[in-house]
Amino acid sequence: MIAAVSVTGLVKRFGQAEVLRGIDLEVPAGRVTCLIGPSGSGKSTLLRCLAFLEEATEGAILIGGEPLGFAVTPDGRRTRLPSGRIRAVRSQIGMVFQHFNLWPHMTALGNVSEALKTVRRLGRSEADDRAMAQLRKVGLQNRANLYPSQLSGGQQQRVAIARALALEPKIMLFDEPTSSLDPELTGEVLNVMRALAADGMTMVVVSHEIGFAASVGHQIAFLDHGQLLLRGTPQEVFRKPRHARLDQFLDTYLDRGAAMLL
Amino acid sequence: MSWTLFLLLVKASGLTVAISAIAIVIGLTLGMVVSAGMLSPNLLLSMPSRVFVSFFRGVPLLVQLLLIYNLLPLLGLNVPSVVAAVAGLSLCTAAYQAENLRGGFLSVPRGVVEAADMAGFRPFQLFWRIRVPIAFKLTLPALVSEAIMILKSSSLVSVVGVVELTRMAQDLASSTYKPLDLYAAAGGLYLAINWLMAGLGRLLERRLRWGRA
Ligand SMILES: Nc1ncnc2c1ncn2[C@@H]1O[C@H](COP(=O)(O)OP(=O)(O)OP(=O)(O)O)[C@@H](O)[C@H]1O
Ligand SMILES: [Mg+2]
User: How confident is the model at residue A262 (pLDDT cuts 50, 70, 90)?
Assistant: First the structure.
């Protein structure tokens, strides 16, 4: 089976700083891959490369077998693909950000229906119907006409998830979707993500919620200083005796709920 | 002052409002494009935009109007003087609005743009649907005060022969020998129009609260 996402030899430099140092990763379709690792290890950078919000310096990314951004010629050189090709491959990817990034001038419904209208060229009523269905999925059908500023953080993040899902992506990327939320609001967002995972969505989740990673993740990837130190099922990765770096990381991040799970 | 004289002034202020309104709309639209041009990493876009802004902000409007009025026929464009007037006002206000909007465009959060990018927006869709509304709202007070400025500056278009409010007051003053009455009335009319504009600005501000109290 073709992996939903396949990353080979990914290197990302910002000037002199080498932030990703040769990442190889396969993301199986229909599964949840959780990226964990210390702050500054390159998790966001890797996710942003998968979304082509950041262009990798070296290496290749395939989305459903299609090259993302660059094609590698047989002699090993990279050429940038035409923007139409890039857009087509990217349209399979949905992204959820730590700070929601909702469009402040549009209501919840507007945020979800906007791209259906401008990008997908659907008529107003069809776009609104589809958007409403997505809002219902995240439990916000009765908040449709409120602006982001009138919603709680958890509700904003659920709108952001609905906005991404409305475009029917094959892969959903989440960059610390709950870490800017008050603790009592993380649950509602994690529940939406759980339901999405149960529906068979391919997901890549950067999270410090180790409990969520251990219980929902099918694959855990542990990133440290720009390298993938460990990759496997939660059982394999979290089983004792653990890799020393992982142990050290878990000591700092492990919340009590997760401690019970492991 | 007679009622007929006052009605003549009111009619002339209609022209003032029309000329200014067109200039404000064209100026804002052009200002958005020029402002985006200034911020472009592409020198072919940013250089002309910057030259445009520094020219139209650096040369007095009166000189601009005379230049345009005399330049158009040379270019083979025999247009009525009111068109030259609107063109001059539009270009001038566009330069100021571009500068006003620049800070707004710079303040559009990067993440909001990235979200639109992920949703597949093409650059011009992203510009008009996301960047412009946010930058517009952020700079609204400055945009409104420039709109009021250009309305007042529209009195200068009399130099190219457009009989708007100020010119009408001047003409009537010299034919009736009652300058004080006429200029007082003209001033009152400008004031009334600007109150109306400021009110519209506040209305717009309220509409653009986007749910904030
Ligand atoms: N645009 C950039 N320019 C320069 N350096 C960057 C840029 N983005 C990230 N970095 C650097 O790359 C490294 C990895 O950053 P990244 O945000 O990917 O880490 P992270 O694992 O997501 O951390 P956190 O858990 O704090 O979110 C950091 O040292 C960061 O300073
Ligand atoms: Mg991060």
Answer: low
pLDDT score recorded for residue A261 = 56
- Which of B118, B129, B208 is opposite residue A118, by nearest beta carbon? B129
Q: How many domains does chain B have?
A: 1
Ligand nearest to the CA of A175: 2
Question: Which two tokens mark A217?
Answer: 């993740």
Spatial separation of the C-alpha atoms in residues A136 and A166, rounded to whole Å: 12
Percent of chain A with pLDDT over 90: 85
Q: What whole-number percentage of chain B has pLDDT above 70? A: 100
Helix (H, G, I), strand (E, B) or coil at B196: helix
Average pLDDT value for chain A? 93
Q: Is residue B202 part of a domain?
A: no
* Residue owning tokens 């600005």: B201
Q: Per the structure block, which two tokens stand in for A132?
A: 């409403």
pTM reported for the whole predicted model = 0.92
Return the structure tokens found at B57. 């902000």
Please name which of A138, A154, A137, A149 lies closest in space to residue A106, comparing C-alpha atoms: A149
For residue A259, what pLDDT band results from cuts at 50, 70 and 90? low
Residue B126 lies in a domain: yes
Query: What confidence score (pLDDT) does residue B77 get?
Result: 85
∠ Cα A147 A170 A76 (to 5°): 120
Q: Range of B42's domain? A: 19-162
- Considering just the CA atoms, what is the radius of gyration of chain B in Å? 20
- What span, in angstroms and rounded, lies between the C-alpha atoms of B116 and B124? 11
| Distance (Å) of CA A1 to CA A29, A64, A141, A180, B39 | 9, 10, 37, 36, 46
The pick from A19, A176, A210 for probing ligand 1's pocket by mutation, whose C-beta has the most ligand atoms within 8 angstroms, reads A19
- B102, B54 Cβ separation under 8 angstroms: no
Two structure tokens written together for A166? 């409305």
Asked whether the beta carbons of A11 and A22 are under 8 A apart, the reply is yes
Ligand 2 ion: nearby residues, β-carbon < 5 Å: A 44
What is the pLDDT averaged over residues A51-73? 93
Atom 9 of ligand 1: nearest residue by CA position: A45
Is pLDDT above 90 for B29? yes
Residues 6+ apart with CB under 8 A from A62: A3, A5, A6, A7, A68
Q: What is the CATH number of the domain that holds B64?
A: 1.10.3720.10
In this prediction, residue A197 carries a pLDDT of 97
pLDDT tens figures, B127-179: 999 999 999 999 999 999 999 999 999 999 999 999 999 999 999 999 999 99
What's at B187, amino acid-wise? G
Distances (CA, A) of B105 to A97, A211, B136: 21, 41, 8
